[in-house]
Design goal:
204 residues; 7 helices; 0% strand
């Protein structure tokens, strides 16, 4: 059962009207919105592939933009934490090293996901017509679905604990919500892409 009083006390440390906090929320929400809109536009029109001369070049370009946006998001997240107070009871070695461990696990999931999927698999290559031969089931996909997203969320959670930051914890919740929405939006569409691929193979 959730301790409502503790939650109220925790988020009493957070000024949600702070400009830095608002910018961080917007950057978190913008990223998955951006890459989903652009990727679906590409899937429908093949406009980026035409502009860059090939699907691979277009996918690499979008991937580079997403990486830059993720760096901007992380910077905004960190600045928002710095501008708001720490939770004194959590500003200790135990919390710091717990956060470090959580971030390490998150980093493991992110890196291993990237290695399993490759660049185009990670950065929406299927929307560009660059399809994988089969579904990836090796680690970390053998442990959980969408390990890239949840690994990234864990990194932010660990980073927040390392800074004893209630603002960081609230922003981490925003990250988790934005990824949950992205998964609900992306999952069925990606499955449909591969369903069409299978139909095409069977009809030959």
């Amino acid at each position: 059962q959730v301790d409502v009083a503790a939650m109220v006390q925790l988020f009493g440390y957070v000024d949600v009207t702070d400009t830095g906090f608002i910018v961080a929320v917007l950057s978190i929400a913008f990223n998955p919105f951006f890459w989903n809109v652009v990727a679906r536009w590409e899937h429908k029109t093949r406009a980026l592939s035409q502009i860059f001369g090939s699907p691979h070049a277009a996918c690499y370009c979008l991937g580079a933009v997403i990486l830059v946006l993720n760096c901007v998001r992380s910077h905004c997240f960190t600045e928002a934490m710095k501008s708001q107070p720490k939770l004194e009871g959590w500003d200790c070695h135990w919390t710091y090293y717990s956060g470090l461990a959580i971030s390490a696990v998150g980093t493991l999931f992110v890196i291993s996901s990237f290695l399993a999927l490759g660049f185009t698999g990670t950065f929406l290559g299927d929307y560009f017509g660059i399809l994988m031969e089969e579904k990836v089931t090796s680690f970390p996909f053998s442990i959980l679905d969408n390990p890239m997203y949840w690994g990234s969320t864990a990194i932010y959670l660990g980073w927040s604990l390392m800074h004893a930051s209630p603002a960081g914890l609230l922003l981490t919740a925003v990250v988790a919500i934005s990824y949950t929405i992205a998964v609900l939006y992306e999952g069925p569409f990606t499955e449909e892409i591969y369903r069409r691929k299978q139909k095409g193979v069977k009809s030959k």
